[in-house]
Amino acid sequence: MAASPKALLREHHPEYALPLPGSAEATLSLHTGTEMPALGFGTWQLKHHTAETVFQALEAGYRMIDTSGDYHTQRGIGNALRGFGGRREDIFVVTKVEETDDAYEATRRNLSELKLEYADLVLIHRPPEGGVGEVLWQELRRAKRDGLTRDIGVSNYSIEQIEELVYRTGELPVVNQIEWTPFGHSPRMLDFCHDNGIVIMAWSPLTRAQRLNDDKLAAMAARYGRTPAQMLIRWNLQLGVVPLPKANHVQHLRDNLHVFDFEIAPADMIKLRALNEHYSALGRLQYV
Ligand SMILES: NC(=O)c1ccc[n+]([C@@H]2O[C@H](COP(=O)([O-])OP(=O)(O)OC[C@H]3O[C@@H](n4cnc5c(N)ncnc54)[C@H](OP(=O)(O)O)[C@@H]3O)[C@@H](O)[C@H]2O)c1
Asked: CA 267 to CA 178: how far, in whole Å?
């Protein structure tokens, strides 16, 4: 079922509480009209056999897979998608190009590794040093015009970098994929993206398991009868942010989908946001 994040979030301001339908097949509308799953599966540093893990994720119910040319998981994902079968349009595939790439050629290369005719979303992985990636963006626009991808977006961009990119090219990204948890996020970025119809995708939404034992988070999770990981995922869903949890262990990837049958109360949403200390697994949030 589709929900316009902006309309719903306005309705539920100030904590953007966004009740979602009860399944991993819930979608959000991008500003281009595309429906995108509300939650996806991350594949960076999948340790075991990528194809096997991604297949298990698809079987469990994930309908969006996030990858990148530099994750070395694309061939495995392609194999998992083939093995899984079904209709191409039922799975949403996100990939990325690097700042030093020829973005058009890199997109073609990614598709060849994925064994797909088109991607659903291609992102500039990060802004190039000292610039906003205007040439990369123009090449991705061309890739979109030529049908290599349905939508295009950015990753690790600041508000100012997005504004500059749009000023120079006239095209608004559909997504900004950034590091995003209660411990590290930016209310200013949340407002900017909501106001402009850009969807935030949360990378490392589980803090790479570094903060799952946080006392306050664990105590709240216990109160809801959920795991800390489920609380972090649900917090994102209720903000209208799309989390991309990664898990090597099949029990983890299954548990991380059981987040559509409970709701975090507004007061607890506020408590979770109060945990913000601009935490980053890399030492510094790149977009603030
Ligand atoms: N655009 C970018 O620059 C960028 C940067 C980084 C990541 N990403 C994307 O975001 C995705 C997610 O980020 P991430 O891989 O860095 O880390 P993450 O999803 O925050 O955390 C993954 C870690 O959490 C553990 N975990 C998962 N579910 C759990 C559960 N239910 N209970 C306890 N532990 C659990 C995993 O353990 P097991 O593996 O042992 O199950 C793994 O150690 C990436 O895979 C990638 O697709 C994008």
From this structure: 25
